[in-house]
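=== RUN LOG ===
request id: a7f3
mode: sequence -> structure
chains: 1
length: 60
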Amino acid sequence: MLYTNHATAKHIAANRHKYRILSRLPLWYARYKPGIRNVFPLGNWENFAARCIGRRHRPS
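=== RESULT ===
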């Protein structure tokens, strides 16, 4: 599993021919914003496997 933020995931996705192993790992998406819209699909990732949710944005 790859734990990374949006900027790094976007870079890996754009250069997946260089990062063949990283771009195929399940994605643990470190994005602490309340919503994720219009992000996926991103390279080889159709969606994320896990996501970090910031303290302020946890569902009640």
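=== NOTES ===
The chain has a mean pLDDT of 78.
The longest helix spans residues 6-14.
=== END ===
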